[in-house]
Design brief:
Layout (H helix, E strand, L loop, with lengths): L2 E5 L12 H7 L4 E3 L8 H10 L3 E6 L19 H18 L3 E3 L11 H20 L4 E4 L15 H11 L4 E6 H7 L3 H8 L8 E6 L15 H10 L5 E4 L12 H9 L1
Parallel strand pairs: 1-2, 1-8, 2-3, 3-4, 4-5, 5-6, 6-7, 7-8
Length: 266
């Protein structure tokens, strides 16, 4: 059966961040993810995970200045040392939180810079990060993000992401397949899931995320029939986590009918 992780950046925003761990556990989640942990000491977060019986299954490497609109720097020329220093910090958090994957955001493509140059920086940084992470037993994830949601984002389509991962060839470099972004940008979700999970043991998909399309609310709303996709993912042998990276339409717990049905069936 699919395993779901609450995204504490987007869910339970009616609570303070540190109170969201308890709220997720109370609703029956056994795992969490979020964008960034760096405002809090790793030991504080680890203690909350232990207290509430939760696993940390994903967070992002530092994106640089998020509040100023930056969305990662992995593909940005001249920022290589900043990216690498940030990734080392992320590895330190991953060790304390016992979190196996770190997501590295590519960033916004700067105007006037040749795409081939950006790709060269991106692949070099990812190869370095994957090598650095391998000794720590950590995976590095990259995510195609729909241009509607982050205009100018460097990586948008599944085929390109898989080509980059294949070219680098690091066994711990994987894809974060966000089905919301995939549907918005290119669609054909079931075919892509079948293609990229054809052999679950050899698959380059390291994590899924979901949200209803187009409003990005609960996965039982909108145009995508997620129950079909969840069954398909299960059928194909995926045993990783599915992150619930959505904005609840109202209070988080009120919209968890879909999750309670899954829990009852499981």
């Amino acid at each position: 059966m699919p395993r779901f992780a609450a995204n504490l950046t987007m869910m339970y925003t009616e609570c303070t961040f540190l109170d969201r761990f308890a709220a997720a556990a109370l609703d029956g989640f056994t795992a969490v993810e979020y964008l960034f942990p760096y405002e809090h000491p790793a030991a504080t977060l680890a203690a909350l995970l232990k207290e509430h019986g939760l696993r940390q299954v994903l967070f992002n490497a530092p994106p640089s200045n998020w509040k100023a609109g930056e969305r990662g720097i992995a593909a940005l020329p001249g920022r290589e040392q900043e990216f690498r220093d940030g990734f080392v910090r992320a590895l330190e958090y991953a060790h304390v939180l016992e979190c196996p994957p770190i997501h590295c955001m590519a960033g916004l493509a700067p105007g006037g810079v040749d795409r081939a140059r950006l790709l060269g920086v991106y692949t070099a940084n990812l190869a370095w990060a994957a090598e650095k992470a391998r000794g720590a037993g950590v995976a590095v994830l990259i995510e195609p993000i729909a241009l509607r949601n982050i205009p100018g984002f460097f990586l948008n389509r599944q085929a390109e992401a898989h080509a980059i991962v294949a070219e680098i060839g690091a066994p711990n470099l994987k894809i974060l397949l966000d089905l919301f972004h995939c549907q918005v940008e290119e669609g054909d979700l079931a075919i892509k899931i079948r293609k990229y999970l054809a052999d679950a043991k050899q698959s380059r998909v390291g994590h899924f995320q979901v949200a209803g399309v187009p409003e990005r609310h609960e996965p039982d709303t909108g145009e995508v029939r997620y129950q079909y996709l969840f069954d398909l993912i299960d059928e194909l042998g995926y045993d990783g986590w599915i992150g619930c990276e959505y904005t609840p339409a109202a209070a988080t717990s009120q919209g968890l009918g879909w999750f309670k049905k899954w829990k009852a069936a499981a």
